[in-house]
Amino acid sequence: MIIDTEKEINFEDFTSFIETFYLQSLTELKEMDEEDMEERCCDNEREGLEINTLENVMGNVNMIIEDIDVKRVDKLFN
Predict the structure, then answer these.
(1) What is the pLDDT of residue 78?
(2) 56: nearest Cα among 13, 18, 17, 2
(3) Could you tell me how far CA 39 lies from the centroid of its own chain?
(4) Is the pTM of this model over 0.85?
C-alpha cells in the first residue's frame, strides 16, 4: 500500500486503516499463539491476545510519532 504523504487523510480512511492494521496484527498474534498452544496453561487467551495486540499497535503508533522530524513539527508553528 502506497500512501501519499502530501495528501490529507480523512477520518474515515484513518479509521479504516487502523481497524485493518489492528485486525491483521491480532490475526498474526493469534496464529503465533496457536503454534505455542501446548506450552500454555489455559485455553481461553482471547482477552490476553486482544490486550497484547492493542499494546503493540499503540506502541507502534507512539514510536512513529516520536520519530517525526522536529523540523516538520516546527514548520507548523512558524
Answers:
(1) 86
(2) 18
(3) 26
(4) no
